[in-house]
Write a structure and sequence with these properties.
alpha/beta; Nucleotidyltransferase, domain 5; 2 domains; 5-stranded mixed beta sheet; 9 helices; globular
């Protein structure tokens, strides 16, 4: 049997038919056009799913389950998206809406959790018992996977590591608090830090490029940014001691340009720095497919 994984984003609906080896064998895509009624977005998910099923040369009855990775917070038991700011969703009964077209089981979870699960079962976390995925983008997305299961917590909202406070008198965060890791370690934060330093940049990659070209101000900005990133990673390691932490998002494409200095900094943030076993920092490998694979892997 086959599963459908849906990665619902603020810009695009990306989905795939996934086989038993977690390979995507058929794809579908639509524009999200956020802000319109949830019923219209769900209908476009179904239309994209039909495209993917056709591309996979399958029929609807071949689909065992549908998993939906969505921004914001969800109630897994009820299948309701309780809040997704960038979609303007409030208490959207996603499972109920999708059940009008799909008779198979439908599962939901947060998009960062699904990306973490995808990397854990088919990417850089394959074969390890405890795994954390961090995505550096507009914010700091994160998910925790233990023994192949997403850690959801009592209210399905666990794993929001971007909202650990690293400076109690720090910068305002979109969550309403001050000093969250996200306000210092996201790609958006890096761009803000660069512009505050007088650099003319268009994206986070430009800051690393300027540093590599010998710009001293860019070098100082990157050094400071990596320090903020290392503080949060050290907190995660000290709290969870996972086998691996992977770094995803656009900045992950820096590869060793990011990971090598980051690993050195993180060494000094671990209280277990002298232990023989240490958490490994690695780069995410599935890219945008992580959410699709993770969504397809969702169960109760």
């Amino acid at each position: 049997m086959y599963k459908i994984g849906v990665d619902l984003g603020g810009t695009n609906i990306s989905l795939g038919v996934v086989d038993d080896n977690w390979a995507i064998i058929g794809r579908g895509r639509r524009k999200t056009l956020a802000g319109r009624p949830a019923q219209e977005i769900m209908a476009d998910i179904v239309a994209a799913a039909m495209d993917a099923i056709e591309a996979a040369k399958l029929k609807l009855e071949d689909i065992e389950s549908v998993g939906l990775a969505t921004p914001g917070s969800v109630e897994k038991d009820t299948g309701v998206i309780t809040f997704a700011n960038n979609l303007d969703f409030h208490n959207v009964p996603a499972r109920e809406l999708l059940s009008q077209w799909f008779s198979c089981p439908i599962y939901l979870d947060n998009d960062a959790n699904c990306a973490a699960l995808g990397e854990a079962i088919a990417g850089c976390g394959k074969g390890v018992g405890s795994f954390v995925a961090i995505t550096l983008g507009t914010g700091v997305g994160s998910g925790i996977v233990i023994d192949g299961k997403i850690v959801n917590g009592v209210n399905d909202a666990a794993g929001e590591c971007g909202h650990m406070v690293i400076d109690i008198n720090g910068k305002p965060c979109n969550c309403g608090r001050r000093g969250c890791w996200e306000a210092y370690a996201s790609a958006t934060a890096l761009m803000n830090q660069a512009r505050d330093a007088g650099l003319n940049i268009e994206n986070a990659k430009d800051v690393f490029d300027a540093r590599d070209a010998g710009n001293e101000r860019a070098a100082l900005v990157v050094e400071q940014y990596l320090r903020y990133l290392a503080i949060g990673l050290g907190n995660l390691i000290n709290a969870l001691q996972p086998d691996k932490i992977c770094i995803g998002g656009g900045l992950a494409y820096q590869g060793e340009n990011l990971l090598a200095p980051l690993c050195e900094l993180v060494k000094h943030e671990r209280y277990t720095r002298y232990a023989p076993k240490q958490t490994e920092l690695v780069r995410a490998v599935l890219g945008n497919d992580a959410g699709i694979v993770g969504a397809a892997a969702l169960t109760k």
